[in-house]
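Run log, item B.
One chain of 325 residues. Sequence copied directly from the ordering sheet:
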Amino acid sequence: MDMVKQWLLLVLTLPTDNPTARMRYWRALKAKGCATLRDGVYLLPASEEAEADLLDLGQGIGEAGGTAHLVCTPSRDESQEVEFRSMFDKSADFDAFIKSLAEARKTLSVLTPAEITRLLRRVRKDFEAISSVDYFPSDASTRAEAAWQDFVALADTVLSPGEPHQVEGNIRLLNREEYQGRVWATRQRLWVDRVASAWLIRRFIDGQAQFIWLTSPADCPPDALGFDFDGAAFSHVGDRVTYEVLAASFGLEAEPGMLGLGTMVHSLDIGGAAVPEAAGFEAIMTGAKRRGLGDDALLTEISPVLDSLLEHFAAAEKDAARKRQ
C-alpha cells in the first residue's frame, strides 16, 4: 500500500453560546471532507493546502469563542492506515451520483435548452463537490467520471444535435462583395450561436441572405454556404465560435459593440468569461422557444434584440474609452 506518511488531527471545541458559528464551522469541516474520529476530533490526509485550511479554520473557531488545536501525526501501523483511509471512502457518494445521472437522463428530451444548461451546471457542481474531497480515488470515482462524461455528451447531443467540433486553422479575410444574395444553411432549432450568426450574416455580410434550416448537416445543398456544423464553410475554429469566426472572416471585429456581443455569444455557447447580459439574452431565447416559434420567426424576433445589445455594448465601449483617457 502507498502509505500516507502524515495525518492532520483537528481537536476542537465549538462555541456553545453561538449556534450560528457552530453550524458554520461544522459545514466548513464537512465541505473540506474531514472524517470524524469522535466528537470534536477531525481527520484529514496531511498536505500543505489542508494544513493551511485547517489552521485558518481553527483561528476562526478561537475568535468565535471556541478552541482548536492542529496536530500532525503518522499512522501507528498499516492497520490504522487502512482504518483511516476507509473513513474517506467516497464509493457510496459516487454510486448515488451515478444513480442521479441515470434519473436525469430520462428528463433530457423534455427539457428546454436553458433547463438543460442549468441541469448540467448543477450536476457538474455535485460531481466536483465529491471529487474535491476524494483523497483516495478508486474504481467508484473512475465509474463516476465515465458516467459524467457520457451524460455531458448526451446532453450536448440533445441540446444541439450536430454541434460542431473545434478545429485548428487560420481564418482568412474575405470580401463581402463576393457573398451577396447567397443561400446560407445551418442546423434547425436555432440556439444562441446559430441565431446570432444568422443575424450577423443578414445585417453585416449579406443583406439579401436566404436561410435554410437543416434537419441534418448532410442535407446541406452543395451550392449553399453552411455555418455552425462540422464541414461547413464557417464553423468553430480554435477557441472561436461560429459567430466570432464570421466576424473575423469579414473584418467585422472592429465594429462598435462587436467585441462585447461576441463575448456574450461565446460564453453562452461554450462557456468563458461571465457576461452580465448573457442571462437576460438566454431568458429571452428560452421564452421564445416556449412560445413555439419556428426558426424563421425566431430569427425575426431575436434580430431586434441583438440590434439593441450591439448598441448597448458599443455604448459601454465608449464609456470605457472615456474613463481611460
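Observations after the first pass:
- The chain has a mean pLDDT of 90.
- The chain has three domains: 7-86, 91-159, 176-324.
Flagged for discussion on Thursday.
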